[in-house]
Amino acid sequence: YLAKGSRSGTARYDQQRDHFDPAQLALVAELRRAIEGNELVLYYQPKAELRTGRVCAVEALVRWRHPERGMVPPDAFLPVAEQTGLIDALTKWVLATALAQAVAWGLSFDRLTMAINISARNLARADFADTVLSALAAAHVLPGRLVLEITETALMTDPETAADVLFRLAEAGVRVSVDDFGQGQTSLSYLATLPLHELKIDKNFVGDLPDNAAHAAIVRSVIDLGHNLGLQVVAEGVETREITAMLTAAGCDIIQGYLLARPMPADELPSWLAGHRVSELTVER
Ligand code: C2E
Ligand code: MG
Ligand code: MG
Ligand code: MG
């Protein structure tokens, strides 16, 4: 891919080559083969509305099914993909695979959106909007069915290009979610100018609720901030009913986490959806 891929990707790769140790260089070669050879897999984790209990979205999360090392988590290979430009090919693969899966499941029929994670390097390319819109057209999926989850750090890497890309995508109807909110250092005035739909509170603030008073204060403030900006607010990493009750009381819109479901292989989602009872999540207010 690097040889025939984008000029900038190749240049960056060559430039950084010297900084990699041999083990990392081997990993780069292996990862390139993995992307081409279909060793990557997507797991899917649902999000549900607190008010109704209804599942409103699924998020695609990449894993590497390595022939010797088993299932490798994204944190172990995404940084290398980002440093080498392989992330362009990886994101294209994720887009095509997740959208084809959404069509196979009939997600739009169920009014579910498909969320995928986008890295800083993707957003720094002026042609990224075309990449996304072409993938949607090729898969025959309406732009409004796709949510791009973008971390604050990724938004801030090249704010001008990111804003251009996001405005083009939003104009076409694609939704944008700010992932891991509260971890980065986004300028709030910049954030307020972007065409956003959703704010996802970082799981580090959610995991130790309700005991951690500081985190509880942050979570309440972020929920209010999101609502004041006209955004839906999602809490990620929700593992207990107690946390769910607190989030419900604080006015959070959507939850995601092990309490609802762990990320699961594609073939498990339909039966999970069929078995999910809407009443399970809703808590007395
Ligand atoms: P993220 O997008 O913030 O995803 C949330 C992470 O938290 C996922 O880890 C998920 O499995 C995990 N998680 C979900 N519910 C819970 C919970 O209740 N408790 C705890 N402790 N963890 C929970 P995962 O799948 O290892 O992904 C890690 C990160 O890798 C993601 O964070 C995202 O930033 C990145 N990533 C994953 N897939 C992709 C992808 O296809 N492309 C790009 N660019 N990044 C991806
Ligand atoms: Mg995410
Ligand atoms: Mg997150
Ligand atoms: Mg994260």
TrEMBL record:
Residue stretches making up the EAL domain: 24-277
Lineage: superkingdom: Bacteria
Signal peptide residues on this chain, from the entry's feature table: none
Protein name per the record: Bifunctional diguanylate cyclase/phosphodiesterase
Organism ancestry: Bacteria, Bacillati, Actinomycetota, Actinomycetes, Micromonosporales
Residues of the full protein shown: 342 to 626 of 626
